Amino acid sequence: MALCFQKGTQLLKHCSLHVSVRPSGSHYLLFGKGFQTWEYSPEYALRSYTYLLVHMVPVWVYNHLLQPNRILLFYFCRCLLGLLCAFCEVYFYKSVCQEFGVQVGRLMLAFMVFSAGLFVASTAFIPSTFSMYMCLLSIGAWYQRRYELAIFTTALSTYLSWPFAALLGVPIALDMLVRRKQFSKFFQWGAISTAVILLPMVLIDSSYYNRFVVAPFNILYYNVFTSHGPNLYGTEPWTFYFINGFLNFNFVFVAALLTPVFLEERFLFPIYPMICLAGAITVDALQKLWFRFLVRRATKAAHYLSHTAPIMVSAILVCSLLGVSRISALYNGYHAPLDLFMELSNVTGDNKLPADQNINICVGKEWYRFPTSFFLPDNRWQLQFVKSEFHGQLPQPYSKGLNATSVIPPHMNDMNKEEPSRYIDVAECHFLVDLDLNTETSWEPNYSRHSADWTVIKSVPFLDTARSHNFFRAFFIPFVSSDYCMYAPYNLLQSKHLKLGKHDPR
Asked: What are the entry keywords (predicted)?
């Protein structure tokens, strides 16, 4: 239980819009202000507001009862996600013990607890994480022969979060239809699940978009039946996925590859627990082979566990050490944006800002590390973008008014084409977030070194990947990594030309 809360509060890995946009959309539902991406435009309607509401109802209750700092709302949501993940993992663990035995279950649990991939994925506010929860429940229910629950949770994952997760239900469908011939139960619960989940979703989403919307169909159509959908934001070579799998699961990922089943990268979040299970089965099989061919001939021992404990202990020890090392490296290297944006609350209190003054906090090349609108102290703070070397489409604030979710925003496209309307002049920025890598281009000046224009009010070390050793930036080794990893100052800058509040600190 303590670990699930640690996951929720200690790490928000460096990512792009898939981390920040869902919380920002939720921020709009709570406070009437937030960022909208083209997927939430009524013209495209690829995303479901029902998914956001499911997460925001407990946050709304917490906010109205205690009215805490907005950052606490964000972490409250992440802690709830961690708690939900913990319950799903316990259910899955019990099911694995029932299906494969306690030994496999214990190995899998150890691999899951110390997996860097699951540490990140378990509290991420993205649809594939919710699909991972549902995968834990659906596969667990399948192992317990509770087919009704398996179908319902698969449908919940498919309709509410990520339609591509339906592929994870194929083994369940084949088992019911081909092996057990349970046609009636399969189609009956498929229809019940659709009626209970999809119909309310359509009603809720259609009311927000002010037109008939089936969000799962829209995202499926966009990614499968359009020429630009699946490849719009780039693809990676196979080596990227192998390295990523090893970083997240170390040798467990390699062991999992020795099992028959493997899926592509886009399904990795939902199948992260399956990787741990496959790795546990492989280690258990290795123990049995070791006992059969090297131990049993020399002894009459009755059970393989009596003589193969060192294999199990070694596997868990290596997995845990590498996992903790990877998690520590992520935290030490990439935690700076969270610390920096938390400083805005102190700035608000120190400057005693007028209630009617808007404050522009700007990001340029660091746009994709902005955590979420929950880190902006109140509605006076406006996140703004200044031009950088990035040439894709950035999000824009929701329109003003109660019906903003149904208004088609201008200057949006589904081709990731740059929209110049997103940018403001850097001279209009009260604050600016900048990573000082001691380099600059025409569109990315080194603002931190422009002391005539900016004052550094907070600086936090951030990993400079280009100047750091590949291994030691990936895995933290106490007393050693510091000699091979270089850090750059991640700075919060305050303009020297724009007055701020009644008591300007300059």
From this structure: Endoplasmic reticulum, Glycosyltransferase, Membrane, Transferase, Transmembrane, Transmembrane helix
Is the confidence at residue 297, as pLDDT, over 80? no
CA distance 131 to 271: 9
Size of the chain, expressed as the number of residues it contains: 506
Model pLDDT, residue 231: 60
- pLDDT value for 357: 83
**257 pLDDT band (50/70/90 cuts)?**
low
Q: Sign (positive/negative) of CA torsion 84, 85, 88, 93?
A: negative
- Domain coordinates in residue numbering, the chain: 2-231, 336-387+423-495
In one letter, which amino acid is 210?
A: N
Tell which wins on pLDDT, 18 or 191: 191
For 189-235, the pLDDT digits (tens) are: 999 999 999 999 999 999 999 999 999 999 999 988 887 666 665 55
Instruction: Supply 438's token pair.
Output: 């001691």
CA torsion angle 243 245 249 254 (round to 10): -80
84-115 in b/e form (b: 16+ CB < 10 A) is bbbebbebbbebbbebbeebbbbbbbbbbbbb
pLDDT score for 254: 63
Section 498-505 average pLDDT: 60
Residue 497 burial (CB < 10 Å; 0-12/13-18/19+)?
A: exposed
- Cα distance from N-terminal residue to C-terminal residue, the chain: 46
* 3-state DSSP of 426-488: HHHCCEEEEECCCCCCCCCCCHHHCCCCEEEEEEEEEECHHHCCHHHHHCCCCCCHHHHCCEE
CA distance 188 to 185: 5
Phi, psi of 396 (to 5 degrees): -135, 160
Q: What is the CA radius of gyration of the chain?
A: 25
Segment 408-421 mean pLDDT:
94
Q: Is the dihedral of CA 257, 127, 173, 118 positive or negative?
A: positive
Residue 82 has pLDDT above 60, yes or no: yes
Q: pLDDT tens for residues 122-181?
A: 999 999 999 999 999 999 999 999 999 999 999 999 999 999 999 999 999 999 999 999
Tell me the mean pLDDT in the region 424-441: 96
Q: Which of 299, 274, 163 is CA-nearest to residue 223?
A: 163
* Cα dihedral 64/66/71/74 (nearest 10): -60
**Residues in Cβ contact with 497 at an 8 Å cutoff, skipping those fewer than 6 apart:** 427, 453
Tracing tokens 């110049």 back to the chain, one arrives at: 420
pTM of the model: 0.89
Cα separation, 187 vs 310, whole angstroms: 48
Q: How far apart are CA 462 and CA 338, in angstroms?
A: 11
Closest CA to 342 of 383, 369, 371, 385: 371
